[in-house]
Amino acid sequence: MTETTERIVNLGLLGCGTVGGSLVELVQGRADDIAARTGVRLRVARIAVRSLDVDRGLDVDPSVFTVDAASLVVDPGVDVVVEVMGGIDPARDLIAAALRAGKPVVSANKELLASAGAELFELADTSGVDLLFEAAVAGGIPFIRPLRESLVGEDVIRVMGIINGTTNYILTKMTEEGWSYADALAEAQALGYAEADPTADVEGFDAGAKAAIIATIAFGVGVTAADVHHEGISTVTADDIEAAGRLGYQIKLLAVAERFDDASVAVRVHPTMVPVTHPLASVRDSFNAVFVEGAAVGDLMFYGRGAGGFPTASAVLGDVVDAAVNVVKGTHASLGSFGQAVLRPQDDLDSAFYLIVEVVDRPGVLANVAGVFGANGVSIRSMEQSALADDGAARLMFITHTARESDVQHTLEALRALDVVRSVDSVIRVIGPS
Amino acid sequence: MTETTERIVNLGLLGCGTVGGSLVELVQGRADDIAARTGVRLRVARIAVRSLDVDRGLDVDPSVFTVDAASLVVDPGVDVVVEVMGGIDPARDLIAAALRAGKPVVSANKELLASAGAELFELADTSGVDLLFEAAVAGGIPFIRPLRESLVGEDVIRVMGIINGTTNYILTKMTEEGWSYADALAEAQALGYAEADPTADVEGFDAGAKAAIIATIAFGVGVTAADVHHEGISTVTADDIEAAGRLGYQIKLLAVAERFDDASVAVRVHPTMVPVTHPLASVRDSFNAVFVEGAAVGDLMFYGRGAGGFPTASAVLGDVVDAAVNVVKGTHASLGSFGQAVLRPQDDLDSAFYLIVEVVDRPGVLANVAGVFGANGVSIRSMEQSALADDGAARLMFITHTARESDVQHTLEALRALDVVRSVDSVIRVIGPS
């Protein structure tokens, strides 16, 4: 393809941190190849930053930088706006302004899309421009595009994802190296995978935000981070990991988005025992994967890097090329409209459970404990009893058959109320082989 | 979205076998949902078949069927042509006629695209219409679209795929159940996974055709099935499987497409020892997966059903919706142009190798054998010696460091020429952890 047939498309970046800087380098390195493949030559025209006094180590003319983000998003010299600043404010207003100005937007902002996604998607639609966000979920993994486009005709029943790399790293180290949760977290922090305050990762908030976006796209209904039930991994013990391994499972922090026959949906994040033969069990270290169950296509899995400058910038770049080609063609992709989600309450969901009950070790206790399960309609699939070192206590490990969440919660309450029960811990959901 | 905003898009199917029939059912079942999401209502308008006298068990007006495929592809009442007949003739001419008539085409035909893909892609481009073919590679797995679109800006270095379900089923049974190759093949045939003549699957022809399509799209150069080096699994023994397991590997039939720094490419299919920690090692039974290594994005994997009526029809349907939406918008996706591939000869590729050498068990033999490796520039990573039951023979198992293929082939020749060597067998390539 010769120079004369190329169309230049000017990018305006909001933010220039790790992802933004990587994107600038990628655009510079790949512009020739992209132009040869698509006829579109990408150019970084403007970059909005908070301070002009930072040396970002990029080979960019200093005049490209500006502190005036509000002007950038309406600048006639910007064809595509790329939001890699993160956070809700001012990203939300800037993206809305860009869309209203008729500029396509590529965003990597999970927090914003999990809170105001459906509203921004509809604004993009009414403005007749693209709003693309591959990088907001599962980093570099091409998942949102296959879900939106390849699977547009598919009846997606369930999506299960390992979509937080920090917690997967911690659980992998606990499983493979026998580390405690505290040691694995400390190592994740030393490697820069986990923040000093790791709450957003280890308690499932980060995965919950991504799961809300996945559910919105998979099911076509607006789901926000606030709709997601989440439980974290900070209570998972080395004993649980060991028991899981012995029973043929690996413990993973799964985000699960489901749609039921009545069109209600449920989105939740919790530690889960996954059979070792399930494809999700083999997702190690800080990798991410999203497992999709469709009525026609069966099981699918998408695997890759969920974070990091270049993997995330790669996903942004794919969207940028798409938006740029659409600008040249004068077209855009539609996300359709999003109804209000009918959320199925957590209490009404079904799952099998693993749990540990510590009891006073005396005759009749097991029958007593088992009776509580039965009285609440929870059927026991397997039980293991082991003696504890101290004063005549025993440890009972149960795995239940699939049961209603509310029945299981009533069982846990009733068990805790028994005078022979010292504690009920490590309540972990269990899934079957794929 | 109300009825009045819907646009009807009429489909003309070429063929109505397993995939075609599944597609008709899927379109019927999903049309409302697709219309709600996209504004496009799909309708199966014409189906070309060889005989009108077959009851296909479909809820379709008999007048939809025709034996005149040549008229279907230029019928003004057909908006999108869907080729699910397979084979090269007459599919090739029919697709070309449809494209020339300005009709977008969706094809699931790996054989045709592996032989005439680049030429048809260019015809689609000059005709200004879509030619989409997600289902031709890895069945229901959304891979071609992510590769074409999400990764359009990515520098793809290598693609490794388990893209033949039959051989993966056979190797899984040999690994997990300890079956012989012959027993596993017989079971695959009984289940309908393998043909009575299994050559196309077990000798790597089927995977080779798909690998040619993958290489064409990943590297933007025309690669055909004839360019693909292939070795099958029929010589893999239970001993090899056992040794692989002991050494921390699984044997998989991999299709590998690589691009080198000088822009040459190599595409090959061969049994491969894959480390158990590699994501491809966990792909079991008849599942498929494609593993992509990109310069920016790192490692990706796409996993799912590589065959079967509904999974394949699901992939076809995704393409059909895309083509239909583009018809309504008056746009299409471009595949760009494809240069001639510069193929790197198999002799110039690098790999580590596993091999078995049976020798006469007498002093000095090991030094003799090891000397042959050294003389040919092949470095040994590990060696195991075991006695054989019969008359003083021994079995030497070698794994080499990465070596040039031609050096390894010279080593094999020289070993076979040694009078102390009885046989050299089970030459299997070995890859490292991802």
Provide the CATH top-level class of the largest domain in chain A.
Answer: Alpha Beta
Distance between the termini of chain A: 47 Å
> How many structural domains can be distinguished in the coordinates of chain A?
3
| Bulk shape of chain A | elongated
As an assembly, this protein is homodimer
Question: How many strands, what sense, and barrel or not for the largest sheet of chain A?
Answer: 11 strands, mixed
Low-confidence spans of chain A: none
**CATH evolutionary superfamily of the largest domain in chain A:** NAD(P)-binding Rossmann-like Domain
How many alpha or pi helices of chain A?
13
Q: Report the β-strand fraction of chain A as a percent range.
A: 25-35%
Structure characterization notes:
2 copies of one chain form a homodimer. With 434 residues, chain A is of the alpha/beta class. Chain A has 3 domains: 3-140 and 309-340, Rossmann fold; 150-305, Dihydrodipicolinate Reductase, domain 2, CATH 3.30.360; 346-430, ACT domain (Alpha-Beta Plaits). Helix content of chain A is 36%, strand content 27%. Chain A is built from 13 helices and 19 strands. In chain A, strands 7, 9, 10, 11, 12, 13, 15, 16, 17, 18 and 19 form an 11-stranded mixed sheet that branches. In chain A, α1 (18-38) crosses α11 (309-329), α3 (91-100) runs parallel beside α4 and α4 (110-127) packs parallel to α9 (205-219). Chain A is elongated. The model of chain A has no long low-confidence stretch (mean pLDDT 95). Chains A and B meet through α1, α5, β12, β13 and α11 of A and α1, α5, β12, β13 and α11 of B. β13 (298-305) of chain A pairs antiparallel with β13 (298-305) of chain B.
